[in-house]
């Protein structure tokens, strides 16, 4: 049996070693950074038709979403946000609903949308009017916020606090491909996998779930469809692209949860929803 004095000395050394280890593992600046972080963002959460919520953008950010979607129309030289033409309102512009509040938030959070987290927020802009003309106006507006956005310049991509991805009318592709410098990227389709456009142009591929799969969450997913889904995601990830499906079931219930679970298991990067609280709760429960 060890002498009492020796036992006390060993205990003291053990305590000191633990304190040293803790200091090495979490230095003061790291502990301070952790204290300064806000709630962890949900990178896979995509707010479809985000602008239809009572507080566009802000509701999605309160639910920690990593991606938001805004539909735009070019009307008399201005970019208006709405789902249908009948809902157009000259006060609801892309700048007032998204660009200006995002700029203010990034300033307040010292360079990021979510305090303490550097992963860019994705702003998916769905063009509803003629693509080329609408994109050129969007490009003009984004230049005023270039310091906020991930940029492409002469073959190199530099991350910013926000990443704009252009979806909707396919005619936007041509003027984008001609640019050597731009503050936006292209939302490809599954047909773009294996194609000539690099991930530096089309980092995201999106497609209609119902055009590619029959399963809607009831019962087990057919083995062939599971294999197809995982093959799509693997092919996209090999090319450095992310994957999103729209038109997935969005009514709360076991079918939606089953489908979301399959998407997560396959590695799908963005889950589409109009139910902000529902997807937030699902992802938190999945992580737990």
UniProtKB/TrEMBL annotation:
Gene3D superfamilies: Phosphatidylinositol (PI) phosphodiesterase. Residues 1-32 form the signal peptide. The keyword GTP-binding does not apply. It comes from the Bacteria. This is Altered inheritance of mitochondria protein 6. GO terms for biological process: lipid metabolic process. It comes from Streptomyces antnestii. Keywords: Signal. GO terms for molecular function: phosphoric diester hydrolase activity. PROSITE patterns: TAT (PS51318). The keyword Signal applies.
